[in-house]
Every structure is written in structure tokens, then in C-alpha cells.
């Protein structure tokens, strides 16, 4: 869990992803289209990927990817992030975290 907390606090937005996951790709694209440059941790390409995936599961991520952190706090997986985007709450979170300026 410490490695996830450390990585999640390094940037305003951190996405834990797998390079082969279509939902991870969609969430990354959503953030890029919002003008946000998230830190991406591809857990299937990280030497500590299994430990990270286990820690994400313990946080309640189901499925474990994509897992999105904004301002160092766990926001949720794809369903939650898309819901926040559709109801307009995501932009406010991004602004508060300093990831979005407009």
C-alpha cells in the first residue's frame, strides 16, 4: 500500500493501468482530452506490478485497473470516473488538485 500511496502523491493525477486494458485506454484518453497530463503507471510493465495490483485490490479497486487518483486521493475506477465526468464533478476535482487550470 505504501508504494501506491507514494506513487499516487507524486502528481496531481495518477492512473494505474494495464497496457492491454481497453478501459484503461479510454480513461487515459478522457484525461488527455480534458487537457490533463496524468502520470501513468502501467502495472503490467512494472517490476512491482503484482504488489501494486494487490495493494489496489486491498483499497477496494474492483477491477484493479484503471484506478484513478486525483490530488493523492483515490477517486475510483472507470465507472466512477465516467460518472464524475458526466455529472460535471470531475473538472472541479481536477481544478482543486491543480491538474486543470481553466
TrEMBL record:
Gene3D superfamilies: Glutaredoxin. This is Glutaredoxin. It is found in: Cytoplasm. NCBIfam families: GlrX-like_plant (TIGR02189). Residues 13-75 form the Glutaredoxin domain. InterPro entries: GlrX-like_pln_2, Glutaredoxin, Thioredoxin-like_sf. CDD domains: GRX_GRXh_1_2_like. It holds the Pfam family Glutaredoxin. SUPFAM superfamilies: Thioredoxin-like (SSF52833). Belongs to the glutaredoxin family. CC-type subfamily. One of its GO terms (cellular component) is cytoplasm. PANTHER family: GLUTAREDOXIN (PTHR10168). Keywords: Cytoplasm, Redox-active center.
Amino acid at each position: 500500500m505504501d508504494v501506491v500511496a507514494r506513487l499516487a502523491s507524486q502528481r496531481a493525477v495518477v492512473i494505474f493501468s494495464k497496457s492491454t486494458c481497453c478501459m484503461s485506454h479510454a480513461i487515459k484518453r478522457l484525461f488527455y482530452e480534458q487537457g490533463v497530463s496524468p502520470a501513468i503507471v502501467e502495472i503490467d510493465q512494472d517490476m512491482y506490478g503484482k504488489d501494486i495490483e494487490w495493494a489496489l485490490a486491498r483499497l477496494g479497486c474492483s477491477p484493479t485497473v484503471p484506478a484513478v487518483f486525483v490530488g493523492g486521493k483515490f477517486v475510483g475506477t472507470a465507472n466512477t470516473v465516467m460518472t464524475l465526468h458526466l455529472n460535471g464533478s470531475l473538472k472541479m476535482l481536477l481544478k482543486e488538485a491543480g491538474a486543470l487550470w481553466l
